[in-house]
Specification:
Two copies of one chain form a homodimer. By secondary structure, the first copy, chain A, is of the alpha+beta class. Chain A has a domain of 154 residues. Helices cover 56% and strands 12% of the residues of chain A. Chain A is built from 19 helices and 14 strands. Chain A has a five-stranded mixed β-barrel with strand order 4-5-12-7-6. A two-stranded antiparallel ribbon of chain A has the order 1-2. In chain A, strands 8-9 form a two-stranded antiparallel sheet. The longest helix of chain A has 37 residues. Chain A starts with 12 loop residues before the first helix and ends in a 9-residue tail after the last helix. Chains A and B meet through helix 1, helix 8, strand 13, helix 9 and helix 10 of A and helix 1, helix 8, strand 13, helix 9 and helix 10 of B.
Chain lengths: 617, 617
């Protein structure tokens, strides 16, 4: 559990700055509304400082949290050693106030910057970062939908770490099927409600560093319709508060138990009982009943991007840990001397298969990172353009909507794959707890499940996002790629790569038409059968495009850079961009076309097989 | 940790019997030398009884072993609760004596049967089963290479559980590069040697259920050449024994520490110090120095098949756990009623994406299981034919040799993938320790690493096994598939599937030629870069072929089965064989052709990128 150089958290800040300043340039948006207070230097300083803070403060607690886990002491959650101090340090440093609006004493930073900082926070300690992350997400819901009183009472305290927060959706029988929730809310006549029910898998469901925890609870008011349309969202603080924010008596919210999990052990995943003694009081977020699911979805959307960032962050950390090890660990002779038992041992990064795995990891972490950066870029443009150029803002919003399921699902699937490769790069050392990669792998497995399983993301993509605005989002997306291809297919260095993009582009467009055909011909069952693969191939196209676009920038930058020792690091960085794009085009992108071919077979064996024929048990 | 129905170990014994009696029929070999004592009924009874024993005795200890782990008490390893009794029960039941030769009071069972029983033993508790598995492997080495005295002294005791055994190869700086081992052996003049050195990652390196542990230790005799050619193999018992097997004084073998691992926590992975006090005595296995690596390789070969079986077994257990859960867990309405919030909730096996995952798991566990059965079938034929029809025996031995790396690497990679899918099928429940799949996933990760990483398997395949016997093994392998295609491509029900096999067959043959070209043109570095992918595509071809061959048998069986309630289970089983072959052909097999296309690009970006360009850290 010691922080040796080899298990210290690492991120590639140069890569982050490349995305923020070169590939998705934030600078044109800075220094004016809504980012008046921000310039390039401020952004750059925040990146450097927040990275340093993560390395120093929460990074060393990542293994501690994993080994100690959480426990229940006297009905309260006890978090791992150091978490309480880290919480205080976090809010002193101000990293969680970056995104918040100035009216809540936040810094109103661009989302692009916030997402970059989130990568460091998540990557250095995903279990810890979920506590403030969920508090902030809950605060945003209240800030958006709450009454003035609620905003004044809750938001600032939750954003600045005085109070925690959670989102309470899942029940034992209602997971993906959130509309089956049975937690009930009974009108008390004074505008308040008596809440009763059990919620499970509540991340950060309690803690020992905030004086209060504000739960946002989905519940059904007596007489409300069935399904999601009858759900309302309630503010249910652990400790009751009056309008002056003074803490009162306890609110009949009990931590019934903690889950024992594969990973993210530092985060308390709670079973929460609301109203066991009939004395749990909640109030609606805002004033309307039966709009809970829409309200929750605002938080879910941000949370889904957050989970995608978790994926990118852990993938990045695993890749860099493996890279570090591969440069350090000596094993075997060079392939060129393999018959000579006395040949010098070389660092394993000299071995071709290790290089293949490193390239896989580089491509599968940098691609999704660029995907997140692209989403954040569109989001910042929405804010900058809204009310000024609504058509442009709508385009950007459409891309955000389209990319959310890709960011959530593809990034997290890649994270698990990258962790698997990182372990394999370490060999036996990857399996033991002296090195961080086995924990990265365990932690990352939940990312594909929570905040909507990756299949739910895929269904969101094919069922909602592709047809959204009459297909305009998809058309704009494909149009952007087509334009890049047209502009670069004759490029001296990149033309051959760019032409390959066209193949995958055609494959994705074809599959979109095929999906439409299935909807129109009533072959609905083929849609969920294909959905995950559609999401994957679209993501492969998008990520490889973004890596090629990065390579395009790198080529120009290399031409401008004078040769010499002091530019060597920069040259290496840009060369890496060229190589990773080449690798992705030749080794990952071809899979998209194959997927189109497979989906074209319309194989229904998985639907046709009788349930009892899967196995004789 | 309780054994609820949902975390009870399960295997599909019907499937095992299909492989043993229908697809790779053992019966023609039974009732005559070398399997005089065996008939179909005996085999069948052993399958039923050993499965029952695994479910009852070691299955319930799988989670116990994971949660408790091992510890060191007074210098000895303490194993988890119940392991000691299970050890006694195992040797009373006799499952580990199945394979052993009658001269050691073994039952001389066919390897096909032994492998099937090993699946139950591994699947129900991989961590436990490694203790007797390693003892048996070590015993086989002594039985094969030892002097008469050594055989008399050690083998029977190790096979029947009186003494344990280990294999000690790895050192801190010598993992995959076993030839770098520094553990030394100094001649003492009396035929004995003083052993000195540290070995790490020693599975089952000590235990608390045997009075002695016989370590097989690779060490270098003073003055021996460098590399693997200077390694000798030594018998180093934990407690010294005289020729009458009486236990004497301790032998200066110390358990220095235990590894803390991602999984297989019930197995003690030890750091062993030999000769810290200069008093560790060993004797050569047999009488020759510097042949240790060949001796160890005999054990390694069996152990590699054993690890492949571990992969199949854990994949099978994970698949069946997920299947069970999918039949039981209700969530959401049918796709056909998705807009009706009051529609009845259905078992998740009704949902298309769950079915897709179940089919993936079925194909990726049954394919490798058939691969193991094929290997075992060839192995039994070698034993049956040797000395009678040496040409036929050579063919069978060639197929064994060719299949070992496929069984080891492909099965274990699939196991991790199947476990990932099993977790996803469970959703949130898959991430918590109330269900067994997260442990299956953690346990399975080591399979791709130990007994030679999967890349070492891939290099064994492309560097040794493909060119072996002038390429005859590969030609025979491809010839067998070509014959199956020719015989079935016009089959009414399967013809279309079989034709697809031809595409992958051509792809594999083409890649084999390409490899040859790389060797001949000195483009050696492309070989390791491609090796893992070559192994994967060959395995995809082989497994899909075997699933199609199973479907061919199923079609005939279905025609003969009368309809009716009492044959329904059998009909379902055979229908499952048809569906899984269809699924594999359309969803897995196409990947082989893609891989050939990718390898044809001869992309060298992973080799070209300078080490410092991977990332700016």
């Amino acid at each position: 559990m010691s922080t040796t150089p080899q298990n210290r958290y690492k991120a590639d800040v140069r890569e982050t700055k490349f995305l923020l300043f070169e590939q998705f340039p934030i600078e044109p948006l800075l220094g004016k509304a809504p980012f008046e207070a921000w310039g390039r230097d401020e952004c750059s300083m925040v990146l450097d400082e927040s990275y340093k803070w993560c390395c120093d403060v929460v990074g060393p607690l990542n293994a501690v949290g994993d080994r100690e886990g959480c426990s229940i002491v006297d009905g309260r959650v006890k978090t791992p050693t150091g978490f309480k101090d880290a919480w205080a340090s976090l809010f002193q440093a101000g990293w969680k106030g970056l995104a918040a609006a100035p009216e809540y004493d936040g810094q109103g930073a661009p989302y692009s910057l916030t997402c970059a900082v989130e990568e460091f926070l998540c990557g250095s300690n995903p279990a810890f970062n979920m506590y403030p992350g969920l508090a902030q997400g809950a605060a945003e819901v209240i800030a958006h939908f709450g009454t003035k009183k609620q905003k004044d009472l809750y938001v600032r305290r939750m954003i600045h770490g005085t109070w925690g927060g959670t989102m309470c959706l899942t029940e034992p029988h209602a997971g993906s099927d959130v509309g089956s929730a049975r937690t009930s809310a009974k009108r008390l006549g004074d505008g308040k409600y008596a809440i009763s029910g059990t919620k499970i898998y509540i991340s950060g469901g309690d803690n020992d560093f905030t004086e209060n925890v504000v739960h946002l609870v989905l519940a059904r008011v007596e007489g409300a319709p069935p399904g999601t349309k009858g759900l309302s969202l309630f503010i249910v603080p652990r400790v009751r508060v009056n309008e002056e924010a003074a803490l009162g008596e306890l609110n009949d919210v009990a931590v019934a138990s903690l889950e024992h999990k594969m990973g993210i052990n530092g985060n308390a995943t709670c079973v929460l009982n609301f109203g066991e003694d009939g004395n749990c009081i909640g109030e609606l977020v805002g004033e309307a009943e039966n709009v809970g699911i829409q309200q929750m979805f605002m938080m879910m959307n941000t949370a889904r991007i957050g989970v995608g960032i978790q994926g990118v962050s852990v993938a990045g950390a695993a890749f860099l840990a493996a890279l570090d090890y591969a440069k350090d660990r000596k094993q075997g002779a060079s392939m060129l001397n393999w018959k000579d038992a006395t040949a010098p041992r070389v660092a394993i990064i000299e071995h071709a298969d290790i290089r293949r795995m490193l390239m896989e990891m580089k491509a599968r972490s940098e691609g999704p990172r660029a995907l997140v950066a692209k989403l954040a870029y569109h989001s910042d443009n929405v804010r900058a353009l809204k009310g000024k150029d609504d058509q442009a803002a709508a385009y950007h919003q459409g891309q955000v909507d389209l990319l959310v399921p890709l960011v959530k699902a593809y990034s997290t699937d890649q994270a698990f794959k990258v962790c698997e490769l990182a372990i394999q790069t370490f060999g036996g050392a990857g399996f033991v707890k002296d090195y961080p990669v086995e924990q990265y792998c365990r932690d990352s497995k939940i990312f594909s499940i929570y905040e909507g399983t990756n299949h739910i993301q895929a269904m969101d993509l094919v069922g909602r996002k592709l047809p959204q605005n009459g297909g305009a989002n998809l058309q704009a997306f494909l149009g952007d790629i087509a334009r890049f291809i047209a502009e670069n297919e004759s490029h001296e260095k990149l033309g051959a790569l760019v032409k390959e993009l066209a193949v995958a582009h055609e494959a994705v467009a074809g599959v979109a038409m095929r999906l439409l055909g299935w909807f129109q011909s009533g072959r609905m069952q083929l849609v969920p059968l294909a959905a995950n693969r559609v999401l994957e191939m679209m993501s492969e196209l998008c990520c490889t495009w973004l890596l090629c676009a990065g390579a395009r920038i790198a080529v120009d930058a290399l031409q401008k850079l004078p040769k010499g020792e002091d530019t060597q690091a920069e040259r290496s960085f840009y060369e890496g961009k060229l190589h990773v794009a080449t690798y992705a085009v030749h080794n990952i992108l071809p899979h998209a076309k194959l997927t189109a071919e497979i989906l074209g077979r319309e194989d229904t064996s998985a639907l046709d097989i009788p349930a009892q024929a899967f196995a004789s048990i």
